[in-house]
């Protein structure tokens, strides 16, 4: 009779081996579970970072969907809200922050500036306030995310608060 060919993954499963399709389905499920765990860990780290920075947001929730982060909660004031958005948005992998937070104590909204190559806080202060010596206003508005006025980087988004002339 000789050799007779059969389809390996068809027929009775007497050996208990998974079929190729079952292996692929399990691999896809494992990959999806790992990705969900990675995202959940990132969401938790962002929430912990916000709390560790002392930002005042009650019922804070950060959820990541693709490259978008959705942030909800009740911020004490506009400053805490904006700093929370900056912490989330200035994280690798986040392209958009969907800010759904509410504010307990209202105040004027700050402007935002995306740092470009060659920017310094002095140049940014000159652009927004007409006075390069007002760079400490921008530095203070972005603390504790900024630890040094000379450590800004292209692509970083900064708060530019409203000031009196």
UniProtKB/TrEMBL annotation:
InterPro entries attached to this UniProt entry: Bact_Kbp (IPR052196), LysM (IPR018392), LysM_dom_sf (IPR036779)
| Claim: RNA-binding is one of the keywords in the record | no
List all membrane-crossing ranges: none
By its UniProt entry, which Gene3D superfamilies does this protein fall under? LysM domain
Tell me the SMART domains matching this sequence. LysM
Coiled coil where?
A: 25-52
Superkingdom of this protein's organism: Bacteria
* Domain called LysM: residue spans: 111-160
Alphabetical UniProt keywords? Coiled coil
Q: What is this protein called?
A: Peptidoglycan-binding protein LysM
Q: Which gene carries the instructions for this protein?
A: lysM
